[in-house]
From TrEMBL:
Protein name: 4-aminobutyrate aminotransferase
CDD domains: OAT_like
Keyword Transferase attached: yes
Entry keyword Transferase: yes
Keyword terms: Aminotransferase, Pyridoxal phosphate, Transferase
NCBIfam families: GABAtrns_euk
Family note: Belongs to the class-III pyridoxal-phosphate-dependent aminotransferase family.
GO MF annotation list: transaminase activity
């Protein structure tokens, strides 16, 4: 059933240590975390924050500033701004902070000779990797390799991770057409690619989904189908976009309609894959487990599994963009773990960034390029980010923070359902979603202006929260967000809804 696929909470692993048998507290990692929010200015940002933005604006566009934080003073789940306001941060730098601000264990890592020398002797990793590179990755990023994948390319950011996966897909697709990696390029291919012409520059495409977001570089921006302000005026590849289901909520009251909607989208998706073979074959399909920037849009686990199987049927590589959903945010380390993919059905590529702080692409050995320098740049990531990711992964496992996030999210969803079903939210809030996906919760406000007003009032009341899509409010707290923080968040949400 569709509703069950989305709403069921993931099973928590059996506890195996003293740390896991007691309730986790963010104080375990950040002993000096504030007890709660405190706002001392009438507006947020206040005068000091506004002045700081104006100074930056003399040389850099400041119109996207939300607040100007004082990162030296921020701690744990709390962000302190230039005016001294203490805000409970449930947005985490657009889902990019895993454990919190100024975590002592991470600060201690930064003080080590290993970290300092890696930072000050930054290598061109593709050509001059440090002697410790294999050890750093084998004890860090490679310990959380998604099932079925055994290769890793490190990159600089989420957009570059997706661009790298696109390039790998195109090269592997053409390699397969030629008959294998041992088949050499023809002179015609080598000459024509320098003119941006076929056959060296083939007319291939990447299929993405409406409302999806995959980055702001040229290839990733062509696959992005949300936030027009990022795309307008920019030349784009002529790549196809498939529909993504428009689910109705509550899910258990619209099972048949939602199943029909998913079926319609799958049929249109397959039709695009078939028809594209004539003019611009789809070499790769890219999908987010939850369409985040486009409004936190969900679909059933079976829908995603069918996307993967249909791509495989039509010889398209399958890329799962876990830049925002990865690293425990949804109550499993990788969100696509919930899809129920069987052996042989795993994605060909999984991209990551944000909460990992490092960025890159996990992939299969068969998609490794057939010649050197084909997926290459000077930095290819950053060794200090690999070290930071290794330490964070260790702490996430030590404190069982993925299971903690799953449990916290389940309780939080229940609390929000209670608030949103009361008169205080009537006519203001709808479509609460994300139950069973950890703290990755979202809801719609009745209008874009009401959403913006809600987010602004939450900030004045000590909660840094974010939006996405046209009128969606989304939660993106850290993995250390717990019961104490949830109580503050829910009570403040109820208070602000009364004021709207």
């Amino acid at each position: 059933m569709l509703s069950r696929a989305i709403r069921s909470s993931p099973k928590l692993p059996v506890t195996r240590s003293i740390v896991r048998t007691r309730h986790f507290s963010s104080l375990d990692l950040v002993p000096n975390e504030p007890a709660g929010p405190s706002v001392i200015t009438d507006k947020v940002p206040g005068p000091e924050g506004i002045a700081a933005s104006k100074e930056i604006d003399t040389f850099q566009d400041s119109r996207t500033h939300v607040i100007v934080p004082n990162y030296e003073e921020s701690n744990g789940n709390y962000l302190i701004d230039a005016d001294g306001n203490v805000l409970l941060d449930v947005f985490a730098q657009i889902s990019s902070i895993a454990l919190g601000y100024n975590v002592p264990a991470l600060l201690e890592l930064a003080k080590t000779d290993e970290f300092a020398k890696a930072a000050m002797n930054r290598p061109a990793l593709g050509s001059f990797p440090p002697v410790q590179w294999a050890e750093w990755l084998k004890t860090g990023l490679l310990t959380v390799t998604p099932k079925g994948l055994d290769q890793l390319i490190t990159t600089l950011c989420g957009s570059s991770a997706n661009e790298t996966a696109f390039k790998c897909s195109f090269m592997a697709y053409r390699q397969r057409e030629r008959g294998g990696p041992e088949v050499a390029f023809t002179k015609e291919e080598m000459d024509s690619c320098m003119l941006n012409q076929t056959p060296g520059a083939p007319q291939l495409s990447v299929l993405s989904f409406k409302s999806g977001f995959h980055g702001r570089l040229f290839g990733s921006l062509s696959a992005t189908r949300s936030k027009a302000i990022h795309k307008v005026d920019i030349p784009a590849f002529d790549w196809p976009a498939a529909p993504f289901p428009e689910l109705k909520y509550p899910l258990d009251e619209h099972v048949k309609e939602n199943e029909a909607e998913e079926k319609r989208c799958l049929e249109e998706y397959e039709k695009i894959l078939v028809e594209s073979k004539i003019t611009r074959p789809v070499a790769a399909v890219i999908i987010e487990p939850i369409l985040s920037e486009g409004g936190d849009r969900h679909a059933s686990n079976d829908f995603f599994r069918q996307l993967r199987l249909i791509a495989k049927k039509h010889d398209a590589y399958f890329i799962v963009d876990e830049v925002q959903t990865g690293v425990g945010a949804t109550g499993t380390f990788w969100a696509h773990e919930k899809w129920g993919l069987k052996q042989g059905e795993e994605p060909d590529f999984v991209t990551f960034s944000k909460k990992m702080q490092a960025a890159g692409v996990y992939h299969k050995k068969e998609t490794r390029p057939n010649a050197p320098y084909r997926n290459y740049n000077t930095w290819m990531g950053d060794p200090i980010r690999a070290l930071q990711a290794r330490e964070m992964i260790k702490l996430i496992k030590q404190h069982d923070l993925v299971s903690h996030t799953a449990a916290t999210g389940s309780s939080l969803a229940s609390s929000f359902k209670s608030v949103f079903s009361s008169s205080v939210a009537s006519g203001k809030v709808m479509n609460l979603r994300g139950e069973g996906d950890g703290t990755y919760l979202a809801w719609d406000m009745a209008s874009p202006s009401l959403r913006d007003s809600f987010v602004g009032k939450m900030r004045v009341n000590g909660i840094q929260i974010g939006g996405c899509g046209d009128q969606t409010v989304r939660l993106r707290p850290m993995l250390t967000f717990g019961e104490k923080h949830a109580e503050i968040l829910v009570s403040t949400t109820e208070k602000v809804l009364r004021e709207l």
